[in-house]
Amino acid sequence: MNTHFQRGQVLFEQSKYELAAKEFMLDLADDPDCSSTHIMIALCLSEMEKYDEALEHAKKAVTLEPDSDLAHRVISGVYIQKDDYKKALSHAEEAIRIDPEDDSNWQSKANVHLGRKDWNDCVDACDKALAINPENVGCRNFKAIALNNLGRKDEAAEVTEGSLQNDPEGSFTHASTGWTCLHRNDPAKALEHFKEALRFNPHNEYARIGLVEALKAKNFIYSLFLRYFLWIGSLKARYQWFFFIGIIVVVNLLNAVSAKRPDLLPYAQGVSMLYFLFVLSAWTASPFFDMLLLFHPEGRYALDKKQKITAWVLALTLAFALITAFYPIMMGASYYFWFFVIPFFLVFPMMTACSSRPGLPRTFTVAYAALMLILLIAVIYFLQFNLLKTYAWGCMLITFIASFVQEK
């Protein structure tokens, strides 16, 4: 085995991916047709978030060694990082076809189903992997996550307890256990496991996100939202929006009835206001409490750059909306109900822009948010009321479009 390859392996195990990639590239210069080296370079590049380059090397490995189930697993993993689950599943299944007795191949398939939120399929793939290797900690953790999202919390707790016994110093195992505790509404215990996960691996993003949620969940109000977030988050994006669209239809039916029965108008407006406040608070609860964590002794270190930016964008958006909401009232306009509500619709495109993936999705959503801001100014400040419905539906529509665009 080449010295460069050995050095690359050591550096890779130390999570020094850039240095490892350089060593593997030097090894590749000596033997350009070594599939194992191409695979290791692909793994390094994937960790460095250079997914297109990683795919090139992984596909080269498949060309050199078509029956390499490892190469197909690596390709599947890269496609998962790119949120292209259709291709990821295809390569995971090819790895299984090549070697159905390797539990790692079933784990790869379980990982795809995990990303697609196909919880039952994820459990099935994990069970097949565990039948081959009962000590597969990764599949035990995947299974716990899927069981939590299926509402089978007691079973998930049993799985994570067994995982901790087999892997007491596993960062991902502690993180998975922490999320199980959050699903069981025990943020204090979840916090302990997330801290342990980060102690064993300070770069564990799954644990860091869990730590932030556990800190916020210590607030009773946010803990109620968290239960809702965990439930709605277990649904695919299209089903989430079927749920919201159903509520919108009911609200519109009430408004239609109240148009024929003026005595029911106050009740219809009350239901509309409650619905809007629910959606708005659900959309802003997480970044709002992120903003509070900026002043928390532990929380401010747990938040990443994106969360901090989103929190401040929300604060500025709410401040602008509040000022805008009172403008028509100060100008003596009538129909105050919608004038007060409409400016806060701006939160939806702004938060969508903050949560979009870099590249075309973010460029599109930022431009869309800017357009909605211009429409809001036209509606309120220049009293262009003919644009009122266009603005309101436009703000809601972007969240719907973004959910489908980003889910593959």
Q: What report would you give on this structure?
A:
It is built from 22 helices and no strands. With 408 residues, it is mainly α. Helix 3 packs antiparallel against helix 4. It starts with a helix and ends with a helix.
Distinctive features:
mainly alpha; 80% helix; Serine Threonine Protein Phosphatase 5, Tetratricopeptide repeat; 408 residues
Tell the overall outline: elongated
Please compute the radius of gyration using only Cα atoms.
Answer: 25 Å
- Tally of helical runs: 22
Which class do the helix and strand fractions yield? mainly alpha
**Total strands:** 0
Largest sheet: none
Specify the helix fraction band.
Answer: over 70%
Strand content: under 5%
List the uncertain runs.
none
Order of helices and strands: HHHHHHHHHHHHHHHHHHHHHH
- Our measurement of the CA-to-CA distance between the termini, rounded to an integer number of angstroms, reads 40 Å
Mean pLDDT: 82
How would the blueprint of this fold be written?
Elements: H1 3-13, H2 17-30, H3 35-47, H4 51-64, H5 69-81, H6 85-98, H7 103-116, H8 119-132, H9 137-149, H10 153-166, H11 171-183, H12 187-200, H13 205-217, H14 220-233, H15 237-260, H16 265-293, H17 299-302, H18 305-330, H19 336-341, H20 347-355, H21 360-380, H22 388-406
Helix pairs in contact: 1-2, 2-3, 3-4, 3-5, 4-5, 5-6, 5-7, 6-7, 7-8, 7-9, 8-9, 9-10, 9-11, 10-11, 11-12, 11-13, 12-13, 13-16, 14-16, 15-16, 16-18, 18-20, 20-21, 20-22, 21-22
What is this entry, summarized?
The protein has 408 residues and is mostly helical. Among the domains are: 99 residues, Alpha Horseshoe (Serine Threonine Protein Phosphatase 5, Tetratricopeptide repeat), CATH 1.25.40; 172 residues, no CATH class. The protein is built from 22 helices and no strands.
